[in-house]
Structures are given as structure tokens and as C-alpha cells.
Amino acid sequence: MPSYDLPGSNSKMMPRHHAAAFSNGYPRGNTFDISPHKFQPRTLTPAQRRRNKLLVRLCILAAILFVFSLWLWPSSPVASLVSFGLLSAGGAPELETVRYYDLTTVQGTARGWEREERILLCVPLRDAEAHLGMFFSHMRNLTYPHHLIDLAFLVSDSKDNTLKVLSESLEAIQADQDPKQPYGEISIIEKDFGQKVNQDVESRHGFAAQASRRKLMAQARNWLLSAALRPYHSWVYWRDVDVETAPFTILEDLMRHNKDVIVPNVWRPLPDWLGGEQPYDLNSWQESETALALADTLDEDAVIVEGYAEYATWRPHLAYLRDPFGDPDMEMEIDGVGGVSILAKAKVFRSGVHFPAFSFEKHAETEGFGKMSKRMGYSVIGLPHYTIWHLYEPSVDDIRHMEEMERERLAREKQEEEKKKNQQKIKEEYSDTRNEWEKDKQEMQNLAAQPKPVKDTQKAPSRDGLAQPHNQQPGSGNQAKAGSGNAAQGDIKAQVVKREGNAARQEGKAVQEGDKRAAVGAQDAPKANPGAAQQVGNAAA
């Protein structure tokens, strides 16, 4: 082939038809290859294509199942985990430290135990060590599910071991082997209010201390409620620690009425000499025109209290309307409520109703709470025939009367003991006399049974100094023996009669001495115990 190399050059001459191909400015070279398979994409094998399709289908199915599980179980922690804590169970935005509650689900219903509605049980305590054992025995017997009941205690102004005994009792019931015994959340709150009124009956229920005492008790209740009420509580139950007897089903019984505020009737047992029983809680009542007129005449800060002669309100009291055989479900609308046992819906307190620590319509604490509930349009109901029993605490007058009765009892027992001693002494003396008489009688009978020597009647002179005639009738000796025997028996009978007379005289003397002692005791008894004089005199008679 012809050469196209330039003269003096070692390079070959490019053909003319190639010149245009390399005129684009790129360096020329002999590495260019226009093979058709160089730029063609690599193809997958059929097995790889089938595997990829299967993986895609499995991923789609897993995604569908996951979304369905989130819709089926919205409360699952997986939902919150997947959403990185930004979504709640309902799908609303949520942070980890924020809790959301729907208060429309905690309104309180008539069958709360079936809907698992939670109850907050509030108990104010002050020097209550002696009553805690009885209180926790009631708590163990409540039939409402214990895990749905949260306990809240406020210990204030206590001088005894209330806090220690309370902690021990709670630990015992929470560690009980019975799974139905432990309660839900438990709160113990300590707060003193400077309460200076003593806890004895005379001080607590004295008229002079009522206004200030009621206001401090209202503060204690409000502190306890504000610290313990949670958004998930549907009911609030207030209970005094010194309730002696109450039905185990009291929570269900009161809840069934489905009222905003409801209270039972409260009585207390009494000793037989005081009548056996008595109305206790007089703070549950209906308003009266007389009471309203009385309230208009009082100062702004005055507090009307029931059961005292200083305030004659003439209100119908729930306690006095009790019928032991009446229908326990009978309802009565009331205006004031007592604080021994109150069941109220939690929404009542959430709406702003509380226990006024001031004069609200001339009332405070629980009675003011009833008035405020009525003012805000809530139902306030009392059950006149559904009764619980408060512990009997004797007053000062009761204690004095009991001391007087005890003195009378001791005097009566002493008198009876002395009477028994006298009777025993008489019995012993009479028994000794009878024994001696029996011995003497036996000796005399033995003596009479012995043969006596027969005297010679012929030689024996007669009373007139003349000797008896020698010739006597036959049998005259036997007559003499019989006469002497009769004389001996007569002497024995005379001695027996004499001893019986002595024994009778001794017995009569002892009886007279016993009567004298009884009379002396009857005269001394009025000096020691004037109230028992008549009884002692009757016993002596």
C-alpha cells in the first residue's frame, strides 16, 4: 500500500477519509474500540429476578400487618416507640414527660365497679391511734375492688402514735397474702393547723369551740383533697376513722343512686341506762324558714351549728327521720351534709366546690360544702333509713353518772357479801349447837339405858318418917321402877327442850345482829352515795 508518511517523519500518514474523524480536538490514538457489546447493560439471571420480587412482596405485607396492629392496639407501647414518643395512644402529639387524660371518661356512674371507676378514699386523722385497728378491720371487709380504691390520709396536730400505727397497718394490709386485700395508690400527708381544741368529747362538741374548729377542719379537708385527687378518679369518699359499724357494701350502696353528693344516716349506740341508741350526725338537714330568718340576723362571719340551743333552727334533720324498718333506698333532698360518711363525684370538686373555711351562707366545712354544692346545681341527697353507727364516746355527764352507778354497785355487792357472811355464820353456829345437842342427847339416852340399883323400900323411911309396911302388893317394885324410868325420861326431855330453846335464842340473836349491821350499812350508804340510798334500803329490807 502507498505510504502517507511525511518526509523525515516516523509517523504514518492518516488516510484522507479519516481526517475528519479526528478533527474534534481530542488526541489521536489507536485505543478506540467500537465493539457493540461494550456499552450494553448487564442482564440479571432469572433466579435473581424471582428473589427480588419475593422480597418486595414480603416487605409490603409486613408493612400492612404493622399498620393494622397499630390500629388494632392503639395503647401498645410500640406505637409510642415507632413515633419516637411524639404520639399518644390516641394519635395526638405527646412528649415523654407529658400525660394526657380524657376527663369525659371519669364522670362517675351508677355501676362504677363494673366500669372500673377509681375511688379516692380520704381520711383526716388526729390522735386516732386508738381507732386505727377498728378502721382497718372495716377496710379489709369492703366489697368494692380494692385495687380501684386509692387511700389518702392527713395526719395533723397529733400527740400520740397515729403516724406510726398508720404506717404499720398500711404495710400489713399491702403485704397481705390475699391478692384482693392490697389497695391502689396510698398517700400519707402531714400538716399541722394549730388546732388547740382537745380531742375529748366535751371539748370537741362544746358550742364555744364549734366555729373555729369547723373552719380548721375545712382547711384540713381541702389540703388533703387538693394533694390526693388525680385526673383518673371518678369518686371521692370521705370517711371518719371512728365509725364503729357500717355495711361492707356501703360504696356500692351509695354509688347505685348515681347522685352528685350522697350521705347515709348516722346514729350511735348508747348504754341501756341512756336509752340504747341516739342520733349522732345532726349536720345533715333540710333548710327551714326559721333558719333563713336567723341567718339574716347574724354577723357576716357567724357560723350556724346544729344541735345547740343557741341556734334554734327548727330544721328537719335526717337523723330524726330514721325508721329501722323503712326502705334503705329512700332518698331525701337535703341542704347541709355531715362529714362522717360522704360519697361525692369527683367532678363536683373539679368544678370548684370545696369545704369553705369561712362563713358561706352562715355555714362552714361540710354544711357549707352541701350549701355550695346546691348553689352550683348539684344534687345533694340523704338516705334516712340507711344507717351506719358511730363509736360511742361518753361525755363528762355520762362519766359522772357511770361513776355514781359504779359506787352503787360496789355498795350493793358489799352489802350482799356481808349478808352472806352473816347467814353463813348463823348456819355454822346453829350447826355447832345441833351437834352438841345430839351428843348430849346421846349421852342422856345412854345414861337412861343403864340399870339403876333397886333400893330396899321396906327399910326406906317414908316422907312422914314412918317405915313402909312390910306386906306390899305384888308389882309395887315394878311400879317404882317404871316411875323412876319415867322421871329420867322427863328429865331428858326437859334438857332437850332447854337446849333447843337455847339454840333458837342464839339463832334469833344472830339474826338481830345481822339486821343491825344491815341497818347500819343502809345509814352509811347515803353518806357515801346519796343516789344509792333507796336501793340499799330495799336490799337491807
Task: Explain what you see.
The protein has 541 residues and is of the alpha/beta class. The chain folds into 3 domains: 48 residues, no CATH class; 277 residues, Spore Coat Polysaccharide Biosynthesis Protein SpsA, Chain A, CATH 3.90.550; 107 residues, no CATH class. The protein is 41% helix and 11% strand. Strands 1, 2, 3, 4, 5, 6, 7, 8, 9 and 10 form a 10-stranded mixed β-sheet that branches. It is elongated and about 175 Å long.
CATH fold-level topology of the largest domain: Spore Coat Polysaccharide Biosynthesis Protein SpsA, Chain A
The helical percent reads: 40-55%
Please name the fourth-level CATH homologous superfamily of the largest domain: Spore Coat Polysaccharide Biosynthesis Protein SpsA, Chain A
Order of helices and strands: HHEHEHEHHEEHEEHEEHHEHHH
Total count of domains:
3
- Give the strand content: 5-15%
Distance between the termini: 176 Å
What is the CATH class of the largest domain? Alpha Beta
Q: Which second-level CATH architecture of the largest domain applies?
A: Alpha-Beta Complex
Provide mean pLDDT, rounded: 79
Task: Label the structural class.
Answer: alpha/beta
Describe what is shown at a glance.
The protein has helices at residues 46-72, 77-82, 132-141, 162-174, 201-204, 210-228, 250-255, 289-296, 346-350, 365-375, 396-449, 476-528, 533-540; strands spanning 118-125, 149-155, 186-190, 233-239, 243-245, 261-269, 277-279, 332-333, 341-345, 380-390. It is α/β, with parallel strands linked by helices and 541 residues long. The longest helix is centred in the last third of the chain and has 54 residues, at 396-449.
